[in-house]
Specification:
This protein has 13 helices and 23 strands. It is α/β, with parallel strands linked by helices. The chain has 2 domains: 283 residues, FAD/NAD(P)-binding domain; 185 residues, FAD/NAD(P)-binding domain. The chain is globular and about 70 Å long. The relative contact order is 0.16.
Length: 494
């Protein structure tokens, strides 16, 4: 007999671990398992191993609401974040629910039975396994673990040195004394440059266009003071609220007063690098938060540039050569190692196939329900964080919604919950799933994702205060989420 669980969670990263905690606390009568395709927990924080890997969100908001961040630095490195996740798993006995090396490939829904059939491959043995579940909670993130995104660079095969993507960082890469070019201007590039600068001969960040950069102390002075005077959990909660509020205020200001914010950000960067460098390499063509800002702790990128060990070049690649990169301007960048920090390969819902009652689901033809579920797709919620704030803030409130939803179904004796368009919703004006955000990695993904509408609940606001009202405070039975029973009584009890 196929094993059945009430809830199946896909992914044991920051979202999946949080989901396990919330299910244990708020739905203790429900059985659940977590299927993780890799051989360890952590997701992003276990996968990426490049020098200096860190969060560009503060840990008082990237950390869980239920587990205080205890370390001094609020801008934390990858190993510290992974250790935090391991502590969470150990403290709440979560690992017994995780099945590693289970790469999920297919999810098939049957309305007759009100359950999903999940097919996974055991990556350690090659065996194919199946489970059924009453509810599917996708916590697999939004990018492919198979490899990062790299544009087609002419002449790539001619280059005589090493070419590395940060998602597949070699453990034995020797860059001591070498000439290194990092292609990219996002968070990964701005992490690599200061981390590698002390050891290389010289490192160059090659970008097509500039990005806004914000320097912040890695240690939050208010958090440090509050920890001395208040109980640990209270101090954490207060700092978390403070950082959430400041983040929302800053983002709102970028929408209402973009020119003023732009001038303020550029003024701060000029104070560190001078007018000429900022004019050429740190003055974007877009407004702040039209794309993600890059956070640099303690101004480490500025220090690397001012030391002379690092430089920035704004230009376009004409071709790779035997000894480096020829630019369209005519300049040649000599290199022993080229790092393509050119982004992630984004995917929809864990690179899985979804079938509902025999029909393949095309998510691009669905409408998003509160940014966490999909029109006409039953008993499915996916966790997707913020592009303008910490991922975990939204993961937490998504878990809250899932638990309320499961408990409502238990209390009403229903088996199936499906968001369905009302007659008045069918004339909605479609908008991109994430609106007002021009980053290339997101724009490449938009055609694959569901549409937003122009009225609740068919919205994905990407704003914490709005999401709190839409997801946490509104009733579960809202007239759009339809609750029904299974067509047959062929269900097997958990």
């Amino acid at each position: 007999m196929t094993e059945h669980v009430d809830v199946l969670v896909v992914g044991a990263g920051i979202s999946g671990i949080g989901a396990a905690y919330h299910l244990q606390q708020r739905c203790p009568d429900r059985s659940f398992v977590i299927l993780e395709g890799r051989d360890d927990i952590g997701g992003t924080w276990d996968l990426f191993r490049y020098p200096g890997v860190r969060s560009d969100s503060d840990m008082h908001t990237l950390g869980y609401s239920f587990k205080p961040w205890k370390h001094e630095k609020s801008i934390a490195d990858g190993p510290s974040i992974l250790a935090y996740l391991r502590e969470t798993v150990a403290e709440h006995d979560i690992e017994r629910h995780i099945r590693f090396d289970h790469h999920v490939s297919t999810a098939e829904w049957s309305s007759d039975d009100a359950r999903w059939t999940i097919t996974a491959e055991r990556t350690d043995t090659g065996e194919t396994v199946q489970l059924t579940c009453s509810f599917l909670f996708m916590c697999s993130g939004y990018y492919s673990y198979r490899g990062g995104y790299t544009p087609e660079f002419p002449g790539r095969e001619r280059f005589g040195g090493e070419i590395v993507h940060p998602q597949a960082w070699p453990e034995d890469l020797d860059y001591a004394g070498k000439r290194v070019v990092v292609i990219g201007s996002g968070a990964t590039a701005m992490t690599l440059v200061p981390a590698m600068a002390p050891d290389v001969g010289h490192i160059t960040m090659l970008q097509r266009s500039p990005t806004y950069v914000v320097a912040r102390p890695s240690i939050d002075p208010i958090a440090a003071k509050l920890r001395k005077w208040l109980p640990e959990r209270l101090a954490y909660r207060l700092v978390r609220r403070k950082n959430i509020a400041l983040g929302q205020l800053f983002y709102a200001k970028t929408r209402k007063q973009p020119e003023q914010v732009r001038d303020e950000l550029l003024s701060l960067t000029r104070a560190e690098l001078g007018d000429d460098v900022v004019e050429r390499h740190f003055t974007p063509r877009y407004n702040p938060w039209d794309q993600r800002l890059c956070l640099i702790p303690d101004g480490d990128l500025y220090d690397a540039i001012n030391s002379g060990k690092a430089s920035v070049v704004t230009d376009h690649v004409e071709t790779f050569t035997e000894s480096g990169i020829q630019l369209e301007s005519g300049q040649h960048l000599d290199a022993d190692i080229i790092i393509t920090a050119t982004g992630l390969q984004l995917v929809t819902l864990g690179e899985m196939d979804f079938v509902v009652d025999g029909e393949q689901v095309d998510f691009s033809r669905t409408w998003t329900y509160k940014g966490l579920a999909y029109s006409d797709v039953p008993n499915l919620v996916s966790s997707f964080g913020y592009i303008n704030a910490s991922w975990t803030l939204r993961a937490d409130i998504t878990c809250d919604f899932v638990c309320r939803l499961l408990n409502h179904m238990r209390d009403t004796g229903t088996d199936q919950c499906t968001p369905r368009l009302r007659p008045t919703d069918r004339e909605m004006t479609p908008k991109p799933w994430i609106d007002d955000f021009s980053s290339g990695y997101m724009q490449r993904m938009m055609p694959m994702l569901p549409k937003q509408g122009d009225c609740e609940p068919w919205l994905n606001p990407q704003r914490y205060s709005v999401d709190r009202k839409l997801i946490v405070r509104q009733p579960i039975d809202d007239g759009v989420m339809q609750f029904t029973k299974a067509r047959t009584d062929a269900r097997v009890p958990a």
